[in-house]
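Notes, p. 3: input format for complexes.
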Amino acid sequence: MKQFVHIFISFLALFLLSCTRPSTTQFVIGVSQCSDDEWRRNMNSEMERELIFHPELSLRFRHAQDNSQLQCAQIDSFIAEGVDLLVICPNEAEEVKPAVSRAYDAGIPVIISDRHVTGEKYTAFVGGDNYQVGRLLADYVSSLADDLSLTADKQIRVLEILGLPHSSPAELRHKGFVDGIRQQPAITIVSQVYADWFQDKARLLVDSVLTVNPAIDVIVAQNDVMALGAHEVVRKRVYDRHVYIVGVDAIAGPNGGVAAILDGYLDASATYPSRGDIVIQTAAAILTHQPYQRETELQTILVNKDVARSMQQMAERTNHEVDAIRMLEQKVGNLNSRWQSQRTATFSLIAFIVLLISCLFVLYRVDRYRKRVHKEREENARLVAQQKEQLDTMRAELNRIKVNKSQDELFVERLQKEMDAHIDDSEWSIEDLSGVLGMSRTQLFRKTKQLMGYAPLDLIRHMRLCKAQQLLQQTDDTIQQIAYATGFATPSYFAKCYRQEFGHAPNEENKIK
Ligand code: FRU
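Output follows (513 residues plus beta-D-fructofuranose):
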């Protein structure tokens, strides 16, 4: 029975475990984005897509609206929540550093992505090579010399729109650009403005620059968003010539820089890959203690109209494939939940059957026990009845013995009385005695033999002789007198019987005494 209960409990536990869908997420990754724009949304979806291959990870996003203080606070809240790893795209290198250090010091692995942070307190870095981006922009501008029908004295006049001061991409891209055009005396940066990565701000700044200095040949913007802001102004203000506009990011898809190139708004853009997939792969390696690359610098290329076309096609194909993967994923999910519910149903059925069998088994045992108890009770009752019967029989027997005994006593008393009364009567016979006692000679014979061990004649003689002996010892009567007094017809017969009974003659009695 115990075994059965154990099996049942184990089965029930197994059933409950199987019903709860196993949670695959083991690690939570906090993603701290400095901003919320197309480039970051693209990076976020790259990371989410990569989770298909890492079901053990889950992502928690926060974006700091281009505010370093807010970003620090958000990083601190991630630390407080106890996330397993942080991916941080710092707004400004120095301003966000304290919060990054706090996370790192708290033992949380930190992957810095896109923009750098000052100091060494981070676990890994994944991001584009911003210096190279600047060099590419410089190369592009140099390549425009022919198009601009450069004469010996003619210069290529550049307006450089920078991103956020103190953010590493703004600084490095600028450095790369400046280094790239250093050997190109024909290229002159005539104006530099910081538009903090924003389209609106770029529009306003470009407008005022063109007002003061309309002779701009090329606008080099550190991202496509600012480049588009510049384009809006140029379109409205410059009709007589083409002002080249080059940006950075070159995001494929309907809203990115690649579409802007195809639409003719921008002339070129340097890719600035976000590679959320590599960020997730690095995170997974760190969390599972696998080897990983501490510094991953992503390479960049320049996208012109031709490249843009194939990039857009590739992006479309990729999107198509991603959609197919998503669909498959959904199908797998459906199948999985169907399998899950079927498994639950199967286990429920088995559990029900096991429960039923257990109940039947328990019922069977209870029934057997009840029958056994009933049988035992019946047996006990039978034994009690038997004992009672025996007791009754014994009681009856006892009563019978009592009655018999008192009758025997009565018989002996009467016999004694009769014999005492006729002890001196030699004529008194067995017939007389049996007549007085109301029984036949045979009955009398049996009774005296049973109760006293003598036949009636022997008993009478024995009693006469005992009386004679008593008289011999207690009186001075003669032997003759005693012989007659005890019912002997002649003294000689008395003497003979006396000797037979006691082994000596009556006259020797006194001597013995
Ligand atoms: C997006 C963005 C990109 C740029 C990058 C630099 O927030 O401004 O356009 O390339 O950040 O970190």
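The pocket of beta-D-fructofuranose is lined by residues 35, 37, 39-40, 114-115, 163, 169, 197, 223, 225, 248-249, 272 (CB under 6 Å).
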